[in-house]
Amino acid sequence: MPEGDEQVSGSQPQDTVPVEVQPVSKKQRGPTKMKDIARDPNSRIKVEFTELGEPCGEGSVKLSSYLGPLVREHVPVLIDDWRKIGEELKTVLWKSVKIRFELDGAYEKAAVMKQMGCLWRASKSRLVKQINKAKNHANRMKLRPDNIPTPEWRKFVKQKTSVEFKKKESSEPAEVTRLNVWVKSRTKKDGSAVNTDAASKIAKEIMQSVAASESSLNPKEDTLAQILGPDNPGRLRAMGRGMSLSKLACFQVKSKYVSDMQQTQVQLQLQVNELQEALEKLNSNRAEADVGENSAQRSVNQRTKPKCILFDWAGSEYKVAEGRILSFDHMDFINSIPLGPNSVKVLVEMAVNGDAFLWRPAQNMLCISQAVGETIAWPQNCVVALEDEFQPEDIPPKSPSTTSVNKCKLLNWVSNDEEPVAEGRWQTRDPKALVNGLPLGPNAIKVFVDVVIEPDTFIWRPTEELSNLQDSLKTFVAWPLNELYSTI
Predict the structure, then answer these.
(1) Are 73 and 147 found together in one domain?
(2) Count of domains in the chain?
(3) Is residue 226 assigned to a domain?
(4) Where do the segments described as Disordered lie (predicted)?
(5) pLDDT tens digits, 126-147
(6) 481 domain residue, yes or no
């Protein structure tokens, strides 16, 4: 084949099929769904509110973002008016919000329901605009929300694209020009013109007005009302969503009471601080006074000190208090006063007879009830020490007294000998009385052993700790009634 023919055949273009290039649509932001909040119902978000009942703070942003998807999902746009959704649906919406946000008050519910109403109306308005902008019926059908059946959506689209609806939106649709828009934006509903110099007039009034503290709080008489005229019924300009005159009055009263309570709280807190300082100073002074040159420090663990019973020093022989023995040293001090001879330094823990007069009264401390928790001096012969193993019912009487009518002698119950084996004071013959934790029983008597004559004598009712009279000195024992006689 000639060379020229090869060049001609090689240069012939091959048949190509034209490829239609589809325009790449840019991904746009869709409606908010707030899946993170809906996915974690156990974590409730706190929402703060202003003094006028409006949500604020970081929690209010998430609340607003959550209410939009919620109301779009549960409230169909087929409803003509938000106020006609029914109480059952309102309850469902409110419970859904409470599960995920910390909202419990009635005013919080009112604010949230109003916000959901505004979001629902705004969502419905955007959807209607998308319907009117759609090029054909197929595109309008693609806008159908998931909670609306196809037949109902077809009726809704037909209604919003009808001539009657468009005429309702604009009274003069054929005459809507830029001039009409400009005039409409500067004309009130009653047809009167808005003052175009309102901004300059407001600035002038503010400069000439009195101080902010002296300005009127009545929205009917403030500067804004005087310039722009009265507000429409049920609404207030520049006061947030859902604010009315009556609602503002309630919040003003509440704010006044809260302010008064806060001032009172500040004053009370100052008084409490002053009292605490005075109490700390008083305690420090008392601690310094109680700690003498040879006295025991308050920091010492008093629980290690022996327990004791205080009997009336005036001679009635009744128990007046319980406490702990701190010292027998006559050179010790109590309130900077020497303890002295035949005296005991005692910490009073419990008052039995609060009216009993102190042996050594002090300033602001005259009786036993005032000495609880304090260190006092008490006569040595009116203090009886207790052992740790003593039961509460085994509290011994005070030291032997020549005037005691209960003095007795104990006979040997084993040998029936007439010679006494011990001396003491009987307390009771009540069978229900306890001795070493056990009832006394019949034909027995409860005796406190003061003097032991025969120390090896076996006691009538021994215990694990007590078996003979030597072990029972200065304790209670049970003794046969026929083996005891009174010495008075």
Answers:
(1) yes
(2) 4
(3) no
(4) 1-37
(5) 888 888 888 888 888 888 888 8
(6) yes
Total residue length of the chain: 488
Across 152-175, b (16+ Cβ under 10 Å) vs e yields ebeebbeebeeeeeeeeeeeeeee
Structural domain boundaries enclosing 262: 244-290
Please identify which residue in the block is written with the tokens 């190509």: 16
Instruction: Indicate whether 150 and 64 sit together in one domain.
Output: yes
For residues 85 and 71, the answer to whether their CB atoms sit within 8 Å is no
Distance CA 480, CA 483 (A): 5
The answer to whether residues 45 and 120 belong to one domain is yes
Q: pLDDT digit string (tens) for 37-90?
A: 655 556 788 888 877 677 888 888 888 888 888 888 888 888 888 888 888 888
Q: Which long-range contacts (CB under 8 A, 24 or more apart) does 287-295 make?
A: 289/335, 289/336, 290/334, 290/335, 290/375, 292/332, 292/333, 292/334, 292/336, 293/333, 294/329, 294/331, 294/332, 294/333, 295/327, 295/332, 295/333, 295/334, 295/345
Do 43 and 152 lie in one domain? The reply is yes
